[in-house]
Amino acid sequence: MKRTFTCIVCPNGCEIDAEYEGANVLSVTGNLCPKGKAYVTQELVDPRRTIASSIRVEGGTLPLTSVRLTSAIPKDRIFDVMKEINAQSVAAPTHIGDVVIRDVLGLGSDVIITKNVDRA
Ligand code: SF4
User: Fold this and answer.
1) Does the Cβ of 15 fall within 6 Å of ligand 1?
2) Looking at the structure, do residues 104 and 82 belong to the same domain, yes or no?
3) Does 58 lie in the same domain as 41?
4) How many domains does the chain have?
5) Which of 42, 60, 84, 89 counts the highest number of beta carbons within 10 A?
């Protein structure tokens, strides 16, 4: 089979034309480095994504703070994890690196804060 992938490993965003059978990548063109082939293989076997979002802050100088996952999760679990994140709120102050949800849904990734918000 043939398919074009957009590698998201780095900001170059290479458009990679891949030929494959099942999870076996036969050839790739368009990738600027070997990570592109590894990315295509990962996409075929176990596609993963990270999430950057925001959560409510109680009693802060801002109503929201930003969060992200510490590692990529299976693509088909993004909706479930977003529900968990949306159900959360934290009390000000917030600090970069604070863990909001440890091992979210048992997926091996933490939700951490990426923006400081002071107490109002
Ligand atoms: S193939 Fe290499 S250079 Fe291209 S986006 Fe992926 S990691 Fe970046």
Assistant:
1) no
2) yes
3) no
4) 2
5) 60
Location of structure tokens 């994140």:
85
Q: How far apart are CA 56 and CA 45, in angstroms?
A: 35
Q: What is the pLDDT of residues 42-91, one digit of tens each?
A: 999 999 999 999 999 999 999 999 999 999 999 999 999 999 999 999 99
Q: Whole domain around residue 14: which residue ranges?
A: 2-45
Task: Check which CATH number belongs to the domain holding 76 and give it.
Answer: 3.10.530.10
Q: Which residue minimizes the CA distance to atom 2 of ligand 1?
A: 33
What angle is formed at CA 30 by the lines to CA 27 and CA 35, rounded to 5 degrees? 75
Helix (H) or strand (E) run with residue 38 in it: helix 35-45
72 & 104 share domain: yes
CB of 6 within 6 A of ligand 1: the answer is: no
Q: Which atom of ligand 1 lies closest to the CA of 16? A: 1
Nearest ligand 1 atom to the CA of 31 is 1
